Amino acid sequence: MANYNYDEAGNMAAYFVLTFLLIFLVPYTLASLSTSKPPSLSGCQCQQCVAQREQIRKRERGSLLTPKLRRRTVILLIGWSIVAFFLYKISNTENNTKLYDPFEILGISTSTTTKEIKSHYKKLSRKFHPDKVKLAVNETMEAVEARFVEITKAYKSLTDETIRKNWEMYGHPDGRQEVSMGIALPKWIVESGNNIWVLGAYGLLFGGALPALVGRWWFGNAQKTKDGVHAQSAAAFFKSLTEESGMDDVTASLGKAFEWDVPTKVGKAETDLEQLEKQIKDKLEDKWDELVKLAEALPGKHESRRRAFILLYSHLLRLPVTNPTLQKEQTDILLQTPVLLNSMLSIIMSRNWLLPTISAMRLHAYLTQALLPGQSELKAAQLPGINLTEAPSLSTSESFEAAVSALSKSESPALPDAEKALERLGQTEIVDASFKVIGERFVTPSSFVHLLVKLRVVPLSKEGHIVPVPKHTKENEKRDNEFLLGKKEMEDLPQGDYTSGYAHAPYWPANRKPSWWIVLADVKSNKVVVPPMKITDVPVANSQNGIDYRSYKIQFQAPQNVGLFTWKVFVVSDTFVGDEASRDVILKIDDPSVLASEDTTADDDISDPEEDSLAGQMALMRGGSVKKLREEESDDESSTDDEEEEDKGNSSSDSDSD
């Protein structure tokens, strides 16, 4: 019977720890490698954007002397260091679990005969007998004797019948051996004096720490929605927004969520925070009190919310924040706003409200460009050198021509940067928007319809006006059908670098790639027809690269009622203020029964033969239906016959007279 002993050297413990470490580290490392390398994209080359990107790089990666290690990197370094230690320990540990093999000990093959074994043993005895071996520098007599005993046992296990039987039955010449089964703990840990501590450690680990870790993970996930925001933030969005909520309501609702999703350090840098609030109040006057009341960020009630709301509006008003603590808090708040706004959009879309949907989408761009929400007249302030005070008089609906002209007349040093920023700006244009049903010419009730939208970005010149590009008039039905039959929602771009680079966003604390939403809405009822689609990489119109537009599709089920539905397609940018486009679209739902009757009538007109034709006569004989001749046609034919007879008569009389 085998005896169970503790692992003297701790080898089993090393294998145990190594196994669990690799189970965790391998997938964690692969996930880190797949997401750690950001895409290398070009960005705006104005001085403000270049400086902002450098600041972002320092914040995310640190400097050469003070590198910034993320928590994931620290975990991986520690984990793989422990793995390396245990691998070294295992590789340098003697393996005592090797099977006994007398042939290997004697250095002979398994096909060796008994006579050859005896002859070989005599040679080994003369060489390794303790009386004939001269001890080396680091060799002891005990080691020499042990080696000779091992050789003798191997010889006898192959020549002595009893010993050979023990080897064949039990795998050892001495018969049944004690089996050492490690329990992944070295013996010194579980000696009599340490038993209570070992039991206590196991109890804390598996009875306390592990359940606490699992419970924290479980209840932590329960507090988050599928969009990754706190459940109370989602509840605040649901309660505070209505069908008529505008930009101020959406911004105030966003401010409420900061209390749970972006906890701030209340009590620190209060003096600087009060100065910021005073500057905000000087600029907004009574409007600030209304916003604070709307967001329920009154002093003394929701200090964390109030602190975040002040930092949010200091960004929107482009007020400098000098305190490092407040700077970090403001960055965390801004980086969390896209997640919160996406969650807000999901809640709004569950009710299909149009006005708050468009407001939440536009708020993305106002936050990116650091402009007061809802004030589209500040559009010109997106250019370097244009401040918030002079922007209203220089903003136009589509171009930046007035702003560039003002910079040029004043010989502003910011003019070159403004021209560089214009290279990243443009005006989104809807080339075409239509409804398509695959394989059908008409749309019937409850059929699956595709909204096909073709988009492009019209570039801006250095003077700030829209560059004239050829109007797209050519229909490419084959290209549309191939795209509709595919599974992708965005049309593939041709080979080459056509993807959008980083946008002009000098106030946003992260590299930002421009995106857009496509919204199909019923403006009259203030409803969104289908969930919006988020898109990216809209190509810039350019006759040289051969790309005039890119197609996008949204599939939905047609209404059940027959009639005309006048809807509107909106394309809203999440990066640039004022970069929007819209177009009216009409969806006609035809009655299937009417279409069927029209097809039947057309088929009848084609299939029935005429009465006076050979096919018509044969159809009459079979009792089938034929196309009746009209009376006018028969009269015309009879008159024609009469005229022919008169002509014949006249010709015959002429011949008689001759």
UniProtKB/TrEMBL annotation:
GO terms for molecular function: protein transmembrane transporter activity; RNA binding. It comes from the Eukaryota. Residues 596-658 are annotated as: Disordered. GO terms for biological process: post-translational protein targeting to endoplasmic reticulum membrane; SRP-dependent cotranslational protein targeting to membrane. Residues 600-613, 632-647 have a biased composition (Acidic residues). Residues 101-171 form the J domain. The chain crosses the membrane at residues 12-31, 73-91, 196-219. Keywords: Chaperone, Endoplasmic reticulum, Membrane, Protein transport, Transmembrane, Transmembrane helix, Transport. GO terms for cellular component: Sec62/Sec63 complex. Pfam families: DnaJ, Sec63. It is found in: Endoplasmic reticulum membrane. InterPro entries: C2_domain_sf (IPR035892), DnaJ_domain (IPR001623), Ig_E-set (IPR014756), J_dom_sf (IPR036869), Sec63-dom (IPR004179). It is a multi-pass membrane protein. The keyword Transmembrane helix applies. SUPFAM superfamilies: Chaperone J-domain, E set domains, Sec63 N-terminal domain-like. CDD domains: DnaJ. This is DnaJ-domain-containing protein. It comes from Lentinus brumalis.
